[in-house]
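Hello Y.,

Per our agreement to keep a running log of every chain we model this quarter, I'm adding this entry. I've kept the format consistent with earlier entries: sequence first, then predicted structure.
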Amino acid sequence: MKRFPSPACFAATLLLLFGVAGPALADPPHPNLYKGEKLVPIEPPVGKPLEFNGWTRDGRSHVYSLHVKRGQTVGVNFWTPSRFTYLVMFDVSKPDEEAFYSSDEDGNIKSLTVASNTTWLIRPYYSRVSPRRGLGAPYKVVIDIK
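Predicted structure for the entry above:
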């Protein structure tokens, strides 16, 4: 005669299986995103600069992810009519959360050389946060990879 596990044992096995493995299998939110931000993967067309624009808005803005390869030279051109809107770039392979490029320190036009294959996070943001609804500014980013 075969013995089947009791319903309690079966339920505990399912809980253990899906309670522990379920979150590990799910795609976790990116640790560098703020509440309400959306991660948008971008890929430049071959031989042409990539141009994208948008509106910075607290809690509803986009953060762009760009895969870059070692040895590439990436030209960044950032434009905005607002003096309170900036562009920062992070390397997700680095454990620190320090930006390696910031338009307020490095200028709106910069040429960067890629040291290793990695993914960059590109975040345009409006620095004057206010509870007033709709606060933000337009921006335009041109990325040229050679």
